Amino acid sequence: xxxxxxxxxxxxxxxxxxxxxxxxxxxxxxxxxxxxxxxxxxxxxxxxxxxxxxxxxxxxxxxxxxxxxxxxxxxxxxxxxxxxxxxxxxxxxxxxxxxxxxxxxxxxxxxxxxxxxxxxxxxxxxxxxxxxxxxxxxxxxxxxxxxxxxxxxxxxxxxxxxxxxxxxxxxxxxxxxxxxxxxxxxxxxxxxxxxxxxxxxxxxxxxxxxxxxxxxxxxxxxxxxxxxxxxxxxxxxxxxxxxxxxxxxxxxxxxxxxxxxxxxxxxxxxxxxxxxxxxxxxxxxxxxxxxxxxxxxxxxxxxxxxxxxxxxxxxxxxxxxxxxxxxxxxxxxxxxxxxxxxxxxx
Length: 346
Ligand SMILES: [Zn+2]
What we know:
Layout: H1 3-23, H2 27-38, H3 43-48, H4 59-95, H5 114-127, E1 132-133, E2 139-141, H6 142-145, E3 171-173, H7 179-187, E4 192-201, E5 213-223, H8 228-243, E6 249-256, E7 259-268, E8 285-294, H9 296-301, E9 310-317, H10 318-326, H11 339-342
């Protein structure tokens, strides 16, 4: 071993290492080259191990060459690593790129239940005439649900409502939203324009046109000089908003214990336009709500002087309105939570 031989070995190793760094296909190959040439058990260290066999004056020279070769190989690997890292990053970016023009997966959106949606539409119409929404309790007492509405315990009109009583003290599930009229009158002074939406309950056998649970919207207006003409005008506006501006309407005599006079409010049949079809029982007309002037007895129960104030009230089944607007024929569909049915109203 002499200095020239060892120097030549180091130079040869440098040339091989620099060529290998330039030809490395990826950074993993550079890692391996680093260990093989520069590592503790690598090529440079192996050559320098012979340094002890040289005369003392040659040892620093070989050490200097070794350092020079080490630095050159490190620089070559470092340069190659920079180049390969950039192209590997570019390749990864290309492989993992997101195509923002690809159509997305559709998101299923929820919607209001058709009954809730219809109740809101009804409230929106009356809101334009200053009616404010109030809520009454679903559990009522016999006094408010019946007696204060001019339906005493022995009144034959009680047969109109098949009541679900909760206890012997007369607590019951409200059979209509009308007791809300009494509650609003106890709470407010005239002028009153109140809208009372809510769920009602009756002891009914359920079929396509009967439900034991249903939704009503009740309206109450109390003021000085309130008349049937005001009632008719308001209900016409409502019918036109819900069923078309040219939809003919009519009042028919009706009966409710809490209004006098009482009327049924009809619109021309939305199916046959008056040609008389099964949907309108061949009358050409469809009843959409009941109404009338508030009975003076009811006003008095509400704490309002019937000599000074008059009022009108109306009540409608929201299912009925929704049926006519959406041509639904079976009430049970509203309760069955079938998304195919409910989604059809979006
Ligand atoms: Zn008809």
